[in-house]
Design brief:
The complex is a heterodimer of chains A (about 120) and B (about 110). Chain A is mainly β and about 120 residues long. Chain A contains no helices and 11 strands. In chain A, the strands form 2 sheets. In chain A, strands 2, 4, 5, 6, 9, 10 and 11 form a 7-stranded mixed beta sheet that branches. Chain A has a 4-stranded antiparallel beta sheet with strand order 1-3-8-7, with no helix packed on it. In chain B, the strands form 2 sheets. In chain B, strands 2, 4, 5, 9, 10 and 11 form a 6-stranded mixed beta sheet that branches. Chain B has a 5-stranded antiparallel beta sheet with strand order 1-3-8-7-6, with no helix packed on it. Classes of the chains: A mainly beta (about 120), B mainly beta (about 110).
């Protein structure tokens, strides 16, 4: 199984809502990532979890809160978002962050619209 | 500064034709270079991955080359199909003894016309 799954596929939320994005992989990967991608732009790294611990936070606003309950799951909790946060949110995983020519596997993404 | 630059930004070709996409990078210390294909609204899918010692790697109609001396890579697509319409992203990894850093190019948007 070389698949990273993400739910939901689409999400529309108001600026006062609280919602969560979910990501799951069963490849035994120990590094998981959240990216934000705006239209016609490359993905921008938000967070990296390594062995279930947050190792990188790319100065992301606190209205985005990541969580890694176990080695297979990664969540992104959303609260009080702004319309400019509307984007495609991608989850990825890799074997780890230091081994050889590790490869990232991406999920299909969650299309988020903030109204 | 670690950078990955891709050209052209966009490209339109007729179905059945070949094309070549370019990627130049200034990433150190270099670990590997990957080409991804991303359909609109979907996650990127890996096409090829190359390390320092590899000059060329193929995946069906996709052939990637790497010149580590000039820090250039290309992705050649032969006999293009309508399904090749997508963004192609060059991603370069830098690796130290403790961690890796991934730098994305801005991508080339390829459109195949019938």
């Amino acid at each position: 199984d070389t698949e990273v799954t993400q739910t939901p596929k689409h999400l529309v939320m108001g600026m006062t809502n609280k919602k969560s994005l979910k990501c799951e992989q069963h490849m035994g990967h120990r590094a998981m990532y959240w990216y934000k991608q705006k239209a016609k732009k490359p993905p921008e790294l938000m967070f990296v979890y390594s062995y279930e611990k947050l190792s990188i936070n790319e100065s992301v606003p606190s209205r985005f809160s990541p969580e890694c309950p176990n080695s297979s799951l990664l969540n992104l909790h959303l609260h009080a978002l702004q319309p400019e946060d509307s984007a495609l949110y991608l989850c990825a995983s890799s074997q780890d962050r230091t081994s050889g020519s590790y490869e990232q596997y991406f999920g299909p993404g969650t299309r988020l619209t903030v109204t | 500064k670690n950078q990955v630059e891709q050209s052209p930004q966009s490209l339109i070709i007729l179905e059945g034709k070949n094309c070549t996409l370019q990627c130049n990078y200034t990433v150190s210390p270099f670990s590997n270079l990957r080409w991804y294909k991303q359909d609109t609204g979907r996650g990127p899918v890996s096409l090829t991955i190359m390390t320092f010692s590899e000059n060329t790697k193929s995946n069906g109609r996709y052939t990637a080359t790497l010149d580590a001396d000039t820090k250039q890579s290309s992705l050649h697509i032969t006999a293009s199909q309508l399904s090749d319409s997508a963004s192609y992203i060059c991603v370069v990894s830098a690796r130290t003894s403790s961690a890796s850093k991934i730098i994305f190019g801005s991508g080339t948007r390829l459109s195949i016309r019938p």
